[in-house]
Write a structure and sequence with these properties.
alpha+beta, 5-stranded mixed sheet
């Protein structure tokens, strides 16, 4: 399943408060104050897996299930929120940020 990376970037920017750009292989999060960059290398299949897992989590708590890319805003916001470094990396479905 192909992911619309432009729509993904827009949804994640709204959900996380970071500036977000995306290409076929990575999603880049940029914060201006303080200056920070986090690069997430991720495939369409891995994005689909994360969205599916978030939908399952929402269903368990009687929330609404959605296929929207913004559903990833919560786990990515949780990963980006405590990050204090200037540059970090995430890979695939592991949303732990490494410097």
């Amino acid at each position: 399943m192909a992911v619309d990376r432009m729509e993904l970037a827009k949804s994640l920017a709204e959900a996380t408060g970071w500036s977000v750009t995306a290409d076929a292989h990575r999603v880049t999060f940029t914060n201006d104050d303080p200056p920070q960059v986090v690069v997430w290398t991720v495939t369409d299949a891995e994005i689909g897996e994360l969205r599916y897992n978030e939908n399952l989590r929402a269903a368990r708590y009687e929330g609404s299930k959605t296929a929207e890319p913004g559903v990833l805003g919560l786990p990515l916001g949780e990963a980006l929120g405590p990050f204090e470094g200037s540059r970090g990396y995430m890979h695939g479905t592991d949303l732990s940020i490494r410097e």
